Structure prediction request, 257 residues.
Amino acid sequence: MRLARTTATCHHKVKDERVITVSSIFYAQITEEFRSKGWFRFNFPPPLIPILKEPMPFARLRMHFMLGLRSKYSVNLYQLFESIINQHDPSIELSVKELRTVMGVPPRKLTQWVHLWQKAVEPALEELNANPAGSGMHIEHDLVRAGRGGKVQAIKFRVQKANERIVKERTIAQQLPSRKRTRVKANDIICSPIGIPMFGERVYANAKKAAPRYDVYALEKEWREWITNREDQTPITNLPGHFISFCKSKASRYPLF
DNA sequence: CGAACCAAGACGCAGGACCC
DNA sequence: GGGTCCTGCGTCTTGGTTCG
Prediction:
């Protein structure tokens, strides 16, 4: 319940137009019977789905490492670097103003470059580079100068994965099943707490087509009981397809008019 | 509960070097 | 020559923790 009340605010673009989306992170609807059996069914709000499907804004953070960082500026820079490290070109150039925003420097604080550098940027880079095994990365930088005195205009960061991270990611990639062998689409199954997984909206939509006028959720309950109690416990490779066939068979034998 | 302590963060200054 | 940077140092503020 608490999670369902958590809201997300996303700044993104829709057809070259800047949009702010404010939404709950998911909504939940479940019968008392399913709840008593330990099932939890949730759906993502429609405005959030295209945002969640876009992988670029997301990064996998190492929380144990992040929590050990001493400076708030180290934390913010670490999040930035994790967001670009998997890109083809894992580098980013930020103006001083953008750097201040990214690092979360309050307005009218560290206004001189020397202070920003000495007290925020340099200590943060040193902290992240001091433990490449923990951060999983190594960061290099170049200062972009211009004008009299060579005033710093921008800073370019280049992020490299640490060797341990490269080896680990290769190992994980080798352990993943081949995509060609994956018959069930990811959208078809929402979560799998125990036993038979719950289905996504696409499966229910197809089930409604297969069994018009039927309550597909009641059919699902019937199907799950049958699956659980059947004598022949041969594994079913395509559960969503099996459920839809069950609905189709039921509707053809007992059509509702 | 309040004082003492500590670390992080913020800011200032001096002197020298560099760039336009 | 003026503007800016860097290094090094010191001081102050703030927030959190520890201890009596």
